[in-house]
Design brief:
four-stranded antiparallel β-sheet; about 325 residues
Length: about 325
């Protein structure tokens, strides 16, 4: 939904709408979502293949004109020449361009510079799901479509940019809070990241590495800064001791690349390695997903295992943290 309305915002607010606002909305919204068709690239033999290709070439900056051309060509066939191709292509270009840039604002990681670099860009200034960003943009875009007034999608663009700028401001405050916490503990953060929690820019997850351990905490960034202390876990991954075989050892490195190095063994299962950037509670280690090694099957790839379990208790604890409680 966010990608669709971001694309529609770009296509309607940055053009003269020579083909009409409805055409710009449809082209921008569909092109804004099109890059995520890469989720269809999967393999039953290699469960980690989708991690390599999601947010890869379809999201890169150099692919934008080609992705837009594909979208425009398909829409031109569907509309049967009811829209001139040149402005249609421009709508698709703007809509498609919004996708990778918006994804890079999250913490998942987007290969904007593929094929020149496989670096995953993650600016960590907005959650993957944030109604405070999406809903106002959606309302303004729909209002513009209903009234045929371009002022509404332009207002949506301004709101979206201001919200992202506020996210960057909060990100810097959270990063400062992380380093202050580390210093207070007598630590030096050798590797650090901060990310907003689901649906807000108020409660942030803090992760830093010191002396071969990851420290995970939460902080509320409002008029004041308030910490919610969390847990720590060893950052060492002992592959040789587990003896998973060369294929699975390679998968561990692929998963390390995907997770930007923030991986650790599950506390209760050394054969499970998780991405500690994501957890249901921001001051907890328990990852939302990970890989499972199987030393008895050295010729097979690792399994990719989702481990999220949103219980009523976990939900209540999260909202209590968000609203001012310590747990």
């Amino acid at each position: 939904v966010s990608q669709a309305f971001a694309g529609a915002t770009f296509s309607q607010s940055l053009t003269r709408l020579r083909n009409g606002q409805k055409t710009a909305f449809i082209a921008g919204a569909l092109s804004g979502m099109a890059a995520d068709l890469d989720v269809l690239i999967r393999s039953g033999h290699d469960p980690l293949l989708f991690l390599e290709y999601h947010r890869q070439f379809t999201h890169s900056l150099v692919f934008i004109p080609f992705g837009a051309l594909i979208c425009a060509a398909l829409l031109s066939l569907l509309m049967r020449n009811r829209a001139d191709f040149r402005p249609l292509y421009l709508y698709c270009l703007l809509g498609y361009a919004s996708h990778g840039l918006l994804d890079a604002c999250t913490s998942y990681g987007t290969q904007l510079f593929w094929p020149f670099s496989d670096m995953r860009i993650a600016w960590d200034i907005i959650s993957i799901i944030d109604p405070l960003f999406t809903v106002p943009v959606m309302i303004l875009v729909i209002a513009g479509l209903a009234t045929r007034r371009q002022a509404y999608p332009r207002a949506a663009l301004v709101y979206g940019l201001v919200y992202l700028a506020f996210g960057q401001f909060q990100h810097e405050r959270a990063l400062d809070a992380l380093h202050a916490l580390a210093v207070d503990r007598g630590h030096i953060a050798q590797k650090a990241t901060v990310k907003p929690t689901l649906g807000n820019l108020h409660l942030w997850k803090l992760i830093y590495e010191y002396d071969d351990r990851f420290y995970v905490d939460a902080v509320r960034i409002g008029f004041n800064t308030r910490y919610i202390e969390g847990e720590s876990v060893s950052s060492r991954i002992d592959i040789q001791q587990l003896q998973p075989g060369p294929l699975q050892a390679h998968d561990v490195e692929r998963f390390r690349w995907f997770s930007d190095g923030y991986i650790a063994h599950y506390p209760d299962n050394p054969l499970m390695i998780g991405d500690i950037r994501y957890s249901l509670l921001p001051n907890r280690i328990q990852p939302l997903w990970g890989i499972r090694l199987d030393p008895t099957a050295p010729q097979q790839h690792t399994d990719f295992i989702p481990t999220r379990d949103m219980t009523d208790s976990t939900r209540k604890r999260f909202f209590n943290m968000l609203m001012g409680g310590l747990e």
